[in-house]
């Protein structure tokens, strides 16, 4: 692991790092905010998954999460949205597929399957690295994200509830099998057989087996992607059908941007803290 920079922030420490990832076969960047409480004892870590076109820097710079994380005693971890630097055919032709658009799944189709293994990365490799290099508890992890990363948080928590003790999402792509972003990515990463897609769709997974805890989702009603790509109504229907405890809050006037995230980030940190810091 290589340290790019470390800065004091709200009494804690914000660092940017790089490492050679065995999941992706590339160098991956990530950011960690260590709250001041970690000087006394290991703290819970809350992992953020960003949306299309973002990097590990986006959340750190734009969400405004560090102040309250420092107060609550939560570590924050932000990772990149895909492998980079591979130059696979077609990986840089569009902003919603390939570089910056890994969808937090494990691809099964060539040439993506060898490198686009973001689910393995966020579920296994990154927590192992974080818990060996930082004062993070291995028994209290939270997962949240935005848009493509909201999809990533929901599906990975639903698939691995034993790894993630809390989960929430901002404007998630809630039903990717039914929208253009999901269809484009899944048909290439997972192949044309749609039966393989359902294992990476939050609505489908929730109907099979609800997540064993409450889920918080915030959605802006002026979000430019709401009708075409996000489908929170499908998530609510899946929750109703499966008995999932879901708090879906819809906010008039808010769009898809980090101004929306910044406006509700405190509620998400408190949601995770209420679970991860409970005795
Ligand atoms: N590049 C796209 C927008 C992509 C986009 O909105 N990405 C969202 C996630 S889906 C984001 O968080 N962008 C980074 C930002 O707002 O800082 C466009 O030009 O329309």
TrEMBL record:
Top-rank EC class of the record's enzyme: hydrolase
GO cellular component, one term: cytosol
InterPro entries for the chain: AB_hydrolase_fold, Esterase-like, S-formylglutathione_hydrol
Identification of the protein by name: S-formylglutathione hydrolase
GO biological process: formaldehyde catabolic process
Tree of life domain: Bacteria
Residue ranges of the TM segments: none
NCBIfam families linked to this entry: fghA_ester_D
């Amino acid at each position: 692991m290589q340290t790019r920079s470390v800065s004091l922030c709200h009494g804690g420490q914000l660092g940017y790092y790089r490492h050679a990832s065995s999941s992706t076969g590339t160098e991956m960047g990530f950011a960690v905010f260590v709250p001041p409480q970690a000087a006394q004892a290991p703290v819970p870590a809350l992992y953020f998954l960003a949306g299309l076109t973002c990097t590990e820097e986006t959340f750190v710079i734009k969400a405004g999460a560090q102040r309250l994380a420092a107060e609550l005693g939560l570590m924050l971890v932000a990772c990149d949205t895909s492998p980079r630097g591979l130059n696979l055919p077609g990986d840089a032709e569009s902003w919603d597929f390939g570089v910056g658009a890994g969808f937090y799944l494990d691809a099964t189709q060539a040439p993506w399957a060898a490198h686009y293994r973001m689910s393995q990365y966020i579920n296994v490799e990154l927590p192992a690295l974080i818990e060996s290099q930082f004062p993070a508890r291995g028994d209290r992890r939270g997962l949240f994200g935005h848009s493509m990363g909201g999809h990533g948080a929901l599906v990975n928590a639903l698939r691995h509830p034993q790894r993630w003790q809390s989960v929430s999402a901002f404007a998630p792509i809630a039903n990717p099998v039914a929208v253009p972003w999901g269809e484009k990515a899944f048909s290439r990463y997972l192949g044309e057989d749609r039966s393989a897609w359902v294992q990476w769709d939050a609505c489908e997974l929730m109907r099979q087996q609800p997540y064993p805890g409450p889920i918080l989702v915030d959605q802006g009603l002026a979000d430019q992607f709401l009708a075409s790509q996000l489908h929170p109504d499908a998530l609510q229907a899946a929750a109703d059908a499966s008995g999932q405890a879901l708090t879906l809050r819809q906010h008039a006037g808010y769009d898809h941007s980090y101004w929306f995230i910044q406006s509700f980030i405190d509620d998400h940190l408190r949601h995770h803290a209420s679970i991860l810091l409970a005795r």
